[in-house]
Write a structure and sequence with these properties.
With 172 residues, the protein is mostly helical. The protein has 8 helices and no strands. InterPro entries: DUF1761.
Length: 172
């Protein structure tokens, strides 16, 4: 069975926390975003940011875990044999021996995650924003944040692997 890289998942889950400091900083897009959502600095000071960051990290772990399925094609191939290589036919073992580490790079993971940002995050954010009566400025600030963030996260989870991470293919 393919091993998950929990270090990659954990590091990727830190990315949204770093990006939120940059993206929503008052010197970048923070003032515009606060205006679009109707927040003031006083309202921001009254919130429990410690809880927000801990819970955001937990949710970010889920995002990083999911991004593996978007960026690592070998997981899709493995799902064809029920998630257990011991159920595989010799043709699957031969295929994975030949192509087991193909497209495992930061760039490939970033590309697929960027596409998810444009084709999945943008529509979700825009639909919510329309029903919430939010502006397009709000939509683009949040969509761009998540698209940049998951692009980096996807690059990390796809590109960070042990070169021998596919030795399970030849083991029966």
């Amino acid at each position: 069975m393919m091993q998950l890289n929990f270090w990659a998942i954990t590091v990727a889950a830190v990315v949204p926390l770093i990006m939120v400091f940059i993206w929503y900083h008052p010197k970048f897009l923070g003032k515009i975003w606060m205006q679009e959502v109707g927040l003031t600095e006083e309202k921001m000071k009254g919130s429990n940011m410690g809880f927000a960051f801990v819970f955001a990290f937990i949710l970010s772990l889920l995002i990083a875990f999911f991004l593996q399925t978007v960026t690592i094609h070998q997981l899709g191939a493995l799902s064809m044999v029920g998630g257990n290589h011991l159920n595989a036919k010799p043709s699957f073992i031969a295929f994975m021996s030949d192509y087991g580490a193909a497209y495992r790079s930061f760039g490939h993971g970033a590309l697929h995650s960027f596409m998810a940002g444009v084709l999945f995050v943008f529509p979700l954010t825009a639909i919510n924003a329309m029903f919430e009566r939010k502006s397009w400025k709000y939509t683009f600030i949040n969509t761009a944040y998540w698209t940049v963030t998951i692009t980096i996260m996807g690059g990390i989870v796809c590109g960070w692997y042990a070169p021998d991470g596919f030795n399970w293919v030849t083991q029966k």
